[in-house]
Amino acid sequence: MKKKLLLQSLSLVIIMSMFAGCGKEAKTPVDSAAAPAASTAASTAAVVTEAPATEAPATAAPSTVKGKITFLNHRTDIAETKMKEYIAAFKVLYPEADVENQAVANQTDVLKVRAAANELADVSFVGGDAMKNVDYPKFFLPIDDLGFAGKVLFESQNIIDGKLYAVSSGGSITGVLYNKKAYAAAGITKTPVTLDEFYAACELLKAKGIVPVATNYFAKWPLDQYAALAYSIADDVALKDKNAKIDAPYTMDSPYGKALEILRTLADKKYTEKDLFSTDWETSKKDLASGKFAMAVLGNWAVPQIIESGSTSEDIGFFPMPVDNSGKLVSPIGSDAFIAISKNSKNIDTAKAFVKFFVEQSGYDNDSGFVPALKATKSTVPQIADFMAANPKLLETGPTLEYTNKVSNKAQFAFPDFAQEYMVEPDKQKVLDRWNKKWADARKVVTE
């Protein structure tokens, strides 16, 4: 399942102890919400790729950018295609420099082993459960001189003791993926900006015999996307850390309770699949592509997957999910992998020039379907461009506190399980009470 590539859910990312766990990709930091990396075919289906610029970045004099560097990453899917193009474009800028692409499927494991042996690549993708960001100074070089200050998303997450040690390769957002033909068939002419408008659209779609929202209830993991809505409702990236300080965070009027109530409303009003217990992710992608299903709350990573399943980029849209009737749109955004430079690199000028090029000029973020890390860069992915045109407030999510992780693990908190129960249990309060008890019991035995 493609979801497994980056979902180890949204995720959001829970950073483990420095060398605990493993995974192929950096996680999306909202309750582990999924954000799988796009394949090359998916990327070309969903984006308009711009040719890399040929103006040399103002990092170091070209005469000092020379020699060979290595680049450790997880993008085996584009190792023979796009990555070769990026490296070739860098070579045009710096003819005396060479980049060896080291793309490995188990990159997180490799990174941990190399870090322990003090043998990191010159440039590496980092993030997820590979190591704690507070440990970056042990292994990586400060990159404050590359001119990213105030210009990139997730900057604060990589500043340790006042110095910047890594930069994001792009961001992932959760929103509503929709089929434009299904909308047109139901007479819907604009995307909703309030929750009532969203429900009204569902009613029009239902009246036309179109399933308004695919929840993938039985597959379960897609329900984790709705955890991101709790952050939108709270308008607070510290929501889960604050919940760890109280015994009963899950109430009807809490952010999580309101997010769950959206799911319950969809189920009660029959705006979901007819049979929740026979839903299937692969089938749902085809049904979204064909217009049998109209919408799904998913990450932007799903856009190319739906297009690959039988649709076209022109027929698939993406908008911020409204969570109330204020008209104010708020969306969590989580970073994919960060890029860092080994403090032991023998060709630091070349490594710095490559990182600056990769972030500012390569086009990697757009090719991968990400929100560009550079705030001033406009996305060339039509669906993300449309999403951003709605002018949502972006909440930069990051790792939760270690105490929060311990409480959550001890309570065996899993939002998809919570959501499944809440959607079908006759007594909703009983569901909230059960999860509050598990949470309170965990807090009794976990120490800060």
- Beta strands, count: 13
Given helix and strand content, the structural type is: alpha/beta
- The averaged pLDDT comes out at 88
- State the major sheet: 6 strands, mixed
> Which geometry do the CA atoms define?
globular
Task: Outline the low-pLDDT stretches.
Answer: 1-58
Distance between the termini: 37 Å
- Total discrete domains: 2
The string of secondary-structure elements, in order, is HEHEHEHEEEEHHEHHHHEHEEEHHHEHHH
CATH class of the largest domain: Alpha Beta
The radius of gyration is 22 Å
CATH superfamily of the largest domain, called what?
Periplasmic binding protein-like II
Strand content: 5-15%
Q: Might you state the CATH topology name of the largest domain? A: D-Maltodextrin-Binding Protein, domain 2
Residue share in helix? 25-40%
Molecular structure report:
With 448 residues, the protein is of the alpha/beta class. The chain folds into 2 domains: 232 residues, D-Maltodextrin-Binding Protein, domain 2, CATH 3.40.190.10; 157 residues, 3-Layer(aba) Sandwich (D-Maltodextrin-Binding Protein, domain 2), CATH 3.40.190.10. 35% of the residues lie in helices and 14% in strands. The chain is built from 17 helices and 13 strands. Strands 7, 8, 9, 10, 11 and 13 form a 6-stranded mixed beta sheet that branches. It has a 5-stranded mixed beta sheet with strand order 2-1-3-12-6, sandwiched between helices. A hairpin with a 2-residue loop joins strand 4 and strand 5. Helix 7 packs across helix 9. The longest helix is centred in the last third of the chain and has 18 residues. It is globular, with a radius of gyration of 22 Å. The N terminus is likely disordered. Pfam families: SBP_bac_1 (PF01547). Keywords: Cell membrane, Lipoprotein, Membrane, Palmitate, Signal.
